[in-house]
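User: Please fill in residues for this 265-position structure.
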């Protein structure tokens, strides 16, 4: 039987709040077995950019990454945030290693093609088959926990700003060839909600037929649909389960408890 491995992604609501981050890192360090952490940091990058006289450029809610913005997010994601997370995990006796997709060619990507909108140096990852699973498996066998910033590379010397959810799902699918993988998305809600204003309306188990029914009736908040579509795509490519839930409930989620929304086929 394959070893279990958790790929855990944290959103900005964890990174932006010192107390939330302290609690999360303590809980993450206590998650037993093999694990990978993926983080973004867009809000912090925007705040630092503003102090440097750089206003974020957003189109349809997505960041446009021009050359200066690429320098900014590389410094903030790959440097400031990533290395502080690693240092704090080391303090919790979790032997972490900070990485981007460029390191050891773990996550090759390509610059997003210009269609209606030019998003600049934004990376779309190549297929999970191109992920350097051998390197990640070697780290796992050494007891080293990879901590990935939301950055990839194009193989031609350019870093690329890349969606952290996509990085997490790509890693989860790739690692499912070697391990039994759970993909965990931690954010500020208790899970997928039937009523976005009611934290008690968590859908605890979501399968394709029920999801389609909820989509047809418009019951799920529209902003959650891309994450859920990606979740089912990951499951179809070998991931065991996807769990979406509150970062404050990570211990219960990782233990297979009732917290969060567990998505399966």
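Assistant: Residues filled in for all 265 positions:
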């Amino acid at each position: 039987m394959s070893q279990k491995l958790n790929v855990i992604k944290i959103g900005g609501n964890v990174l932006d709040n010192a107390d939330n981050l302290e609690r999360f890192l303590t809980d993450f360090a206590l998650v037993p077995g093999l694990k990978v952490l993926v983080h973004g940091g867009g809000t912090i990058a925007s705040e630092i950019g503003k102090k440097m006289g750089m206003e974020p450029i957003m189109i349809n809610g997505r960041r446009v990454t021009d050359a200066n913005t690429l320098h900014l997010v590389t410094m903030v994601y790959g440097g400031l945030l990533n290395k502080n997370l690693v240092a704090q995990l080391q303090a919790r006796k979790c032997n972490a290693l900070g990485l981007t997709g460029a390191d050891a060619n773990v996550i090759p990507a390509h610059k997003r093609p210009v269609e209606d909108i030019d998003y600049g140096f934004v990376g779309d990852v190549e297929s999970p088959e191109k992920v350097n699973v051998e390197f990640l498996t070697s780290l796992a066998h050494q007891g080293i926990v990879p901590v990935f910033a939301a950055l990839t590379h194009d193989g031609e010397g350019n870093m690329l700003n890349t969606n952290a959810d996509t990085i997490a799902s790509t890693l989860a699918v790739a690692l499912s060839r070697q391990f039994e993988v759970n993909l965990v998305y931690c954010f500020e809600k208790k899970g997928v909600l039937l009523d976005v204003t009611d934290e008690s309306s968590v859908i605890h188990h979501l399968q394709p037929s029920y999801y389609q029914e909820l989509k047809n009736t418009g019951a799920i908040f529209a902003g959650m649909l891309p994450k859920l579509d990606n979740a089912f795509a990951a499951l179809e490519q070998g991931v065991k389960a996807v769990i979406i839930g509150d970062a404050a409930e990570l211990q219960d989620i990782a233990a297979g408890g009732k917290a969060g929304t567990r998505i399966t086929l």
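For context: The longest helix spans residues 67-91.
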